[in-house]
Design a protein that fits this description.
Elements (H helix, E strand, L loop, with lengths): L8 H23 L6 H8 L20 H16 L4 H13 L7 H13 L14 H4 L2 H6 L10
């Protein structure tokens, strides 16, 4: 950030809100195409640029997937804990799962169930858990670490 740029609380709030809205809109747009190859997308939709719903989940137009739901759940856990608390986040995911989400990956389901049944917050590495779900839930963590480089250090 250069010295000529001033980020106010108001503009930061607007940027964060924009990030969440962009995330949800992108999720609603992409839900239609989930698990399709580029060739299948082109054959079925040509250039897909409208939020239409459908897809393998048969979602109504404008509805989001578990990616947005889990991002919002994680955000609420961070707000309520007034910062990062992995146990609070895990507890919130247990509650989210109890609401019977439309979709949930097998890896996420196993992780939440493991935590619920054993209290374990970590699992051994498994080649079958190599999805991109964690990438889709990084937004709230990036926002709470904004301008805190030390928060990203191991």
């Amino acid at each position: 950030m250069n010295s000529d740029t001033t980020i106010t609380a108001s503009s930061l709030y607007e940027r964060a809100l924009g990030a969440y809205l962009g995330f949800a809109c992108g999720d609603a747009l992409g839900a239609t195409l989930e698990f399709m190859t580029p060739e299948q997308i082109h054959e079925t939709y040509g250039l897909h640029k409208d939020i239409t719903g459908g897809g393998w989940l048969g979602l109504p137009q404008g509805h989001v997937t578990d990616a947005t739901e889990m991002t919002l759940t994680l955000s609420q856990a961070i707000i309520d804990a007034q910062g990062w608390d992995i146990k609070v986040a895990a507890d919130y995911f247990v509650v989210w799962l109890s609401k019977h989400p439309t979709d949930i990956s097998e890896a996420v389901l196993r992780g939440i169930r493991r935590y619920k049944n054993t209290g374990d917050l970590m699992a051994p590495y498994d080649d079958h858990d190599a999805g991109n779900g964690a990438c889709s839930r990084i937004l709230p963590l990036a926002l709470i670490c904004l301008y805190q480089d030390e928060a990203f250090e191991s």
